[in-house]
Amino acid sequence: MAEKTGLVLEGGALKGIFTCGILDVFMEKNISFDGIVGVSAGAVFGCNLKSHQAGRALRYNKRFARDRRYASWWSFFKTGDFYGADFCYRELPEVLDVWDAEAFKKDKTDFYAVTTDVISGKPHYQKLENGNAEDIQWLRASATVPIVSRICELNGGKYLDGGLSDEVPLKFFEGLGYKKNIVILTNPLSHKEKYNPLLYFIEKLFFKKYPELLKTMKSVSERNTKTFDYINEQEKLENILVIRPPYELPIGAKAKDEIQLDQVYELGRITALERLEEIKEFLKVKKEGK
């Protein structure tokens, strides 16, 4: 019996355009997985792999890069969300660049979006199956950046960005029985995160009613260090295959330059194509088991 193959997608705001380039190559080369788990931008962009919509994420990011309804301080002061919630998670997928919910539903790949439970401070792993409006709201929850977004209230719960509690959910997937995992990161190996006490001071002002969430926020850097140490260890043991950019991506949370978006996307494509045979070799156990 073939081992279950998984794809684990880190977040990173528009650094996720690098991931989009890789995923589009996967679609073009018919590389598939038994399961996908995405965090924040990893979930929002990664859902297009299950709906078989190559190019969609890059297309709408370029089309609306300068639209203040999409991502702007205008949107923040008008709606409470830097990334306009109604525009990004209703008008865009339902009208302007339609997400193929039917294709998403028909595809047999399991798909999980990671978000952070505001009350418990723990990660919440939501399986998305229908591609409906509720699934889209779970994608929103996964990418709800604290302070510059309203808390996402869904099905009686309160949620924020999944990266706060589980930046790269490799262990979660391993716990579900996925033994052959490809992990796509949005930072190079040399990247080092630093604890920002000023940011935590601001978070305390905003989230003083949620003590467990504050504990989670305070321990983000320490937890992520352990996560990436584990990823690096598993990579050296060849238990996983990691795809990461070769250098720090020259893109921020809001990119208005279409050329910059194209460059980051193309770097993802080039990286995937250069490692295509390695990727196929890593996943071949799946083909042999069919």
Order of helices and strands: EHEHHHHHEEHEEHEHHHEHH
The residue fraction in helices comes out at 40-55%
Ends apart, CA distance between termini: 8 Å
Shape designation? globular
The main sheet comes to:
8 strands, mixed
The average pLDDT is 94
User: How many helices?
Assistant: 13
The secondary-structure class comes to alpha/beta
Model regions low in confidence, pLDDT < 50 over at least 5 residues: 286-290
Query: What percentage of the residues does DSSP assign to strands (E)?
Result: 15-25%
Number of strands: 8
Could you tell me the radius of gyration in angstroms? 18 Å
Describe what you observe in this structure.
The chain has 290 residues and is of the alpha/beta class. It has 13 helices and 8 strands. It has helices spanning 16-28, 41-50, 56-63, 73-79, 85-96, 101-106, 133-142, 170-175, 197-206, 211-218, 220-236, 258-274, 276-289; strands at residues 4-9, 35-39, 110-117, 123-128, 152-154, 157-161, 178-184, 240-243. Strands 1, 2, 3, 4, 5, 6, 7 and 8 form an 8-stranded mixed beta sheet that branches. A hairpin with a 5-residue loop joins strand 3 (110-117) and strand 4 (123-128). The longest helix has 17 residues, at 220-236. It is globular. Residues 286-290 have low confidence and may be disordered.
